[in-house]
Amino acid sequence: MAGNGAAHPKLPTRTEVVVIGGGVIGCSIAYHLARSGRSDVLLLDRRQLTSGTTWHAAGIIGQLRPSINMTNLARYTRELYDSLEAETGQATGYRRCGSISFATTAQRLEELKRNASMAKVFGLQVDVLTAKEIGERVPLLNANGILGGIYIPTDGYANAVDITHALASGARTAGARIFENVPVTAIRKGPGRVTGVTTEQGEVEADCVVICTGMWTRDLAASIGVNVPLHACEHYYALFESVEGLDSSLPVIRDYDACTYYKHDAGKLLVGAFEPNARPWGMDGIPDDFSFDEIVGDFDHFEPILHGAMARIPALEKAGLQKFFCGPESFTPDNRYHIGKSPEFDNCFVAAGMNSIGLQSAGGIGKVVCDWINAGHPPVDLWEVDVRRNLPFQRNRKYLRDRVSESLGLLYATHYPHRQFETARGVRRSPLYDHLQAAGACHGEAAGWERPNWYAPPGIPAEYEYSYGRQNWFDYSAAEHQAVRCNVGLFDLSSFAKYRLEGRDAARVLNWVCANDIDVQPGRIVYTQWLNERGGIEADLTVTRLDEHSFLIVTAAATEVRDFYWLKAHIPADAHCVLTNLTSAMGVISLMGPKSRDFLQTLTPSDLSNEAFRFGTSREIELEYALVRASRITYVGELGWELYIPTEFVVGVYEAITAAGEAHGLVHAGYHALDSLRIEKAYRHWGHDITDEDSPLEAGLGFAVKFDKPGGFIGREALLRQKTKGVPRRLVQFRLCDPLPLLHRTEPVWCEGRIAGHITSGNYGHSLGGSVGLGYVDDSLVKDLPAVQADRFEIEVAGERIPAEASLRPMYDPFGKCIRC
Ligand SMILES: Cc1cc2nc3c(=O)[nH]c(=O)nc-3n(C[C@H](O)[C@H](O)[C@H](O)COP(=O)(O)OP(=O)(O)OC[C@H]3O[C@@H](n4cnc5c(N)ncnc54)[C@H](O)[C@@H]3O)c2cc1C
User: Fold this and answer.
1) Index of the ligand 1 atom closest to the CA of residue 361
2) What is the pLDDT of residues 585-636, one digit of tens each?
3) 708 CA distance to ligand 1 centroid (A)?
4) What's the whole-number mean pLDDT along residues 307-314?
5) Strands (DSSP E) along 68-213, which ranges?
6) What's the rounded Cα separation, in Å, for the pair 553 and 542?
7) Spacing, Cα 56 to ligand 1 middle (Å)
8) CA distance 161 to 479
9) What order of strands is seen across the sheet that includes strand 231-241?
10) Looking at residues 36-54, what average pLDDT do you find?
11) Which residues of 452-479 are buried (b: 16+ CB within 10 A; e: fewer)?
């Protein structure tokens, strides 16, 4: 045992929480748990604290992340490190030196300026600098080609080993017990719960297990069926000594376009890299005796970075290369870390896959994981890093190896809107994939699915040309949008997650989980949210009653795992009710547009008239040789049907539809058009516009809440309290008055000279003629908002404030006439 005074104390046989892994993440979680009042926290490491990846860290502590909550976590980390030395008496090497990130391309400069605008929402000081100012502040730099950049005065660096020991020391002081050289050989489990761990020194029973074992996590978690997809990659830096002109006031420098960063390191200059085509490591498993090890690495792989560095900092040419360093770090398929409660077990938590920002994230991760364990739910919306976003296939090692070679470099790549992964593609394909490719589809990836985002006309390559402005597909997607608004368009929505819940208790169980009333006649479709006890929105989906005892539930591809387990967790053990994931059993073709009825009617003997087939209903119809479920519902704001088709019939149905479609001007439409159509109609997008932090009343979804239905529902009491008190904020739709700038997400919303909120999702509205975004603002600002108000709000895009119209009702078809005709 490290540092508790007693010699070789015996491993306890029971504890409240066992944290596996003594890197910076495990120590931070133990620190926060112990300080939160948990008297019985045990941390185990197979070797010594920091001996995995942590000891390698270059030590950079940056704070600006792509979203508010992620930035808040990083900012909390920085604040914690600022005070940790004084609190624990353990040196941390923390220094607040600021950071400068610069651009050498116009697109990068736009990205940095957009980030600086975004930071205003978070209250983080970020100054935009000219190239001249950067050159003056950092005379070491050759400023050739620099176009400008940003300065964050509160960024800095620290010593990762010292920080970890300080956290461990703080944890011990608060009562945690830390044992080194105690490998966990197995995690013990019972039905739906983990029960403790097995170690080389005996078994420890625990109420809660937290897996923070860095690059070892995928395999340890998989041993109990918990899915944590990550894979190690080689990660490089070099240390130069005797660098002329170097002094300790040097801010951390990020030259994103050259994939390089620089940092003062105890009198030396550390040059690190986030190169494209990283080298996955540990393909045959991680050596058992790995401890404070370095990887031999490949100097040739790193050499181009060094050449670039010498051009940027000429003093390096005469400096001495003191050390070339390579260590393993875990990367994930989407470059975001994994934290939270595993969906597979009630009391098993995960924090791993840090993508090279583990040190700068550890404080915040420790805090939110601790809060999550103590409260039983995440303290804020953490969806972007929530372990429940992972699909089971993602722990396939070939997939991971191929993907993480790209993940590392993406950290410093330009984060263009709609940027697609290039590796490990084609994983999940709809039966229509080849047909849609032939029709010109440019596929993007979501949850492993290949989905048509837009269609290239004949002779035009179906490839993205990225930028922050209008990308090459803008006009093609606009034409798809207009076809859906004026005629009829075809979408392949096969990636929808679909479940079936059946059994004689199904209606009762589901009605308790749904805020809307799903105890309706068979054949009715109900749009509903699933809420948590706090009234926050856990899921946004439709429920179709198939017959008295069975329901079809349709939700987004991205939430397939999360929503499935949410419902599963709410089925009482004694309920007669079975939940099945049918995602792979059905494809979905959707026909949308004012002419969709006329067109679809030519293909089926079933009566599609408004009288016979009302909006919000669903039934089986004959189509070609198939029986398909036609659901009259829409996410684009037009008349239309979603056709749920058994997988093996999908191609035949599609061929019949497209053969007949030529005469009707049927157009293929992709997800970019879908998103443009839905935002004009102000349909909310779960994960962006609505999350577990937002209530349906705030989000303008009160119409889908049935307070008085028999039996109530999860979250009802919280919503009633909010209803009585009044909602603090409301989701508003905005449209930029200038038709040129593009909204993406997190742009600040200004009202009367102060920041009133930010854009939660944005896209171009081709029918409304400008960028459209949704965002929450204080209720008092929109209390008397008429349908559309034009002179109050501005939205900041890359430093420029643009006047915007605002409305609480959808600006497109506010009364839903197009849908119900
Ligand atoms: C070259 C390099 C530079 C970096 N620079 C930075 C930087 O500047 N800023 C930044 O924020 N991040 C940086 N990082 C990333 C950072 O170091 C990591 O994200 C972080 O250290 C990961 O911490 P961890 O606790 O998740 O993993 P680890 O430090 O690997 O800890 C996991 C621990 O689990 C233990 N363990 C594994 N299996 C078991 C078991 N079965 N039983 C018990 N214990 C077990 C291991 O012994 C290990 O100690 C860098 C990484 C590298 C490689």
Assistant:
1) 11
2) 999 999 999 999 999 999 999 999 999 999 999 999 999 999 999 999 999 9
3) 51
4) 96
5) 99-103, 127-130, 148-152, 156-157, 177-179, 184-190, 193-199, 202-211
6) 6
7) 8
8) 56
9) 127-130, 148-152, 99-103, 252-255, 260-265, 268-273, 231-241, 320-331
10) 97
11) bbbbbeeeeebebebbbeebbbeebbbe
Among 76, 92, 167, 213, name the best residue to mutate to test ligand 1's pocket (greatest count of ligand atoms within 8 A of Cβ): 213
pLDDT, average across residues 351-357: 97
> Per-residue pLDDT tens for 647-679?
999 999 999 999 999 999 999 999 999 999 999
Q: Which atom of ligand 1 is nearest to the CA of 235?
A: 1
State in Å: Cα 29 to ligand 1 middle: 14
Expressed in angstroms and rounded, the spacing between residue 37 Cα and the centre of ligand 1 is 26
Structure confidence at residue 787 (pLDDT): 63
Strand, coil or helix: 585: helix
Q: Is the pLDDT of residue 206 over 80?
A: yes
User: Residue 6 pLDDT > 50, yes or no?
Assistant: no
Share of residues in the chain with pLDDT > 90 (%): 94
Token pair recorded at residue 571: 């089925």
pLDDT score for 66: 82
For ligand 1, the distance from its centroid to the CA atom of residue 456, given in whole angstroms, is 44
Residue of the nearest CA to atom 38 in ligand 1?
213
Question: Cβ atoms within 10 A of the Cβ of 624, count?
Answer: 17
pTM value > 0.90: yes
Contact 199, 185 (CB under 8 A): yes
Lining ligand 1 with CB less than 6 A are: 20-26, 44-47, 51-54, 56-60, 160, 183-184, 212-214, 216, 220, 235, 237, 327, 329, 352, 354, 356-360
Gyration radius from the chain CA atoms:
27
- Confidence (pLDDT) at 8: 65
Q: What is the rounded CA–CA span in Å between residue 348 and residue 371?
A: 14
167 alpha carbon – ligand 1 mean position (Å): 14
| CA–CA–CA angle 286, 394, 23 (5° rounding) | 40
User: From ligand 1's centre to the CA of 50, what distance in Å?
Assistant: 7
Q: Compute the distance from residue 156 Cα to the ligand 1 centre, in Å.
A: 19
| Amino acid, single-letter form, for residue 585 | A
Count CA atoms closer than 13 A to 495's CA, side-chain side. Answer: 24
Write out the two tokens for 82. 């600022």
CB atoms within 10 A of CB 28: 32
* Cα angle, residue 342 at apex, residues 396 and 671 outer, rounded to 5°: 65
Q: How far apart are CA 126 and CA 121, in angstroms?
A: 11
pLDDT of 3 strictly over 60: no
Q: Among 43, 53, 412, say which to mutate for ligand 1: greatest number of ligand atoms within 8 Å of CB.
A: 53
CA nearest neighbour of 338 among 365, 375, 372: 365
CA distances, 152 to each of 125, 156, 196, 609, 767 (Å): 6, 9, 44, 61, 40
Nearest atom within ligand 1 for CA of residue 47 = 47
> How far apart are the CA of 237 and the centre of ligand 1, in A?
16
Residue closest via CA to ligand 1's atom 25 equals 23
How far is 41 from 29, CA to CA, in rounded Å?
10
For ligand 1, atom 31, which residue shows the shortest CA distance? 23
What integer pLDDT is reported at residue 769 of this predicted model?
A: 97
- Hey, which of 51, 188, 254, 359 would you mutate to test ligand 1's pocket, going by the most ligand atoms within 8 Å of its Cβ? 359
Scanning 281-440, the segments in alpha helix (DSSP H) are: 299-312, 358-375, 397-410, 433-438
Phi, psi of 164 (to 5 degrees): -65, -45
From 42, 51, 54, give the residue whose CB has the most ligand 1 atoms within 8 Å, as the site to mutate: 54
**Whole-number pLDDT of residue 480:** 98
Distance, in Å, from the CA atom of 752 to the CA atom of 542, rounded to the nearest integer, reads 39
Mean pLDDT estimate for the chain: 96
Q: Pick the residue whose CA is nearest to atom 2 on ligand 1.
A: 57
